Amino acid sequence: MFSFLRRQGNKAEDQAANYLKEKGYKILARNFSCKMGEIDIIAQDKQNTIVFVEVKQRKTNLFGGGIAAVNKAKQRRITLAAAAYIKKTKINYTALRFDIITVTAGVLTHYENAFSTHNLTL
After folding, report:
1. CATH number at residue 30
2. Of 17, 58, 98, 111, which one's alpha carbon is 20 to 30 angstroms from that of 43?
3. Does residue 72 belong to any structural domain of this protein?
């Protein structure tokens, strides 16, 4: 049985996935996991950009909210997991992007291009 926090996280991820679909994104994968890390949502936008999305759910913005939880170490793990996904799927794309979606007190905020790959080779 899932813990309360995991169920809340799943609800936030469902809300984020539905939001992206409404915006015209195609959901390619959810909860992709490998030894390097995990990515909550992998989507493709209308311009064939592959979008790796980290979803963070918080009750309040106290202590910086969900966006503050995606620090440099987390960004690196997401980037390495993205490279593993690309290698595994051999997916064709025109560009890559890393987004963060926060859900705070039920309100969704989408931060497009929230961080870069920091010159890592994908």
Report:
1. 3.40.1350.10
2. 58
3. yes
